[in-house]
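Worked problem 6 (solution included).
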Amino acid sequence: MADLKYYDVILKPIVTEKSMGSMADKKYTFSVHPEATKNQIREAVEKMFAGTKVVSVNTMNLDGKNRRRGNTVGKTSKMKKAVVQLSADSKEIEIFSGL
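Solution. The predicted structure is:
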């Protein structure tokens, strides 16, 4: 397993209709490093966003999709997605507040 620092774990937020709808329940969706564990994701969210307290982390490993361009066949890269549930008394995550 790779030696990941907390700032390497979270790659970007995922902004879709479904993820924006779950923000009312304080659930936030992030694209994370494929080798990151749930404990590393919990630590990264609590360190990067001050005042947050993580209750649970659910992760999904997504395989790459098959893509064709003419006669050439390839695959897109695989990714890992994490849904982070915050406690009721924790602060909101600022990057999602303006959306």
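Discussion: The domain at 6-86 is CATH 3.30.70.330 (Alpha-Beta Plaits).
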